[in-house]
Amino acid sequence: MILGIIRGKCPHCNKGDIFSSKGSSILFRMPEMGKRCKNCNYKFEVEPGFFFGAMFVSYALACAEMIACFVLTWAILKIPIAYIFLCVVSMALLSSAFNFRLSRTIWMYLFYKKR
């Protein structure tokens, strides 16, 4: 299951890709998600607004990443606070496309029921 989440595979068949494009934070492109699995025809968005809860997962991921970045730069590297702020903000911006994909995939796997 964890491997399927990391690779972004369909929760039903574990073969089809959930996202048709990976996106890029640097180019300000969010990943594009397919409506259905190309392998097993599983519908990803179970109901309208299904992925609203994935925003909370994305928020938790971003907080964990920012705290880890803060601890790394402040406690280990001991750089000035202004640079720490710039590091944390740039890390949050660069990981946004990754967090979008991962949070939607986690949310889908959390509520997957074998039909």
TrEMBL record:
Alphabetical keyword list: Membrane, Transmembrane, Transmembrane helix
InterPro entries assigned to the protein according to its UniProt record, in alphabetical order: DUF983 (IPR009325)
Record field: transmembrane: 50-75, 81-100
Organism superkingdom: Bacteria
This protein's name: Uncharacterized protein DUF983
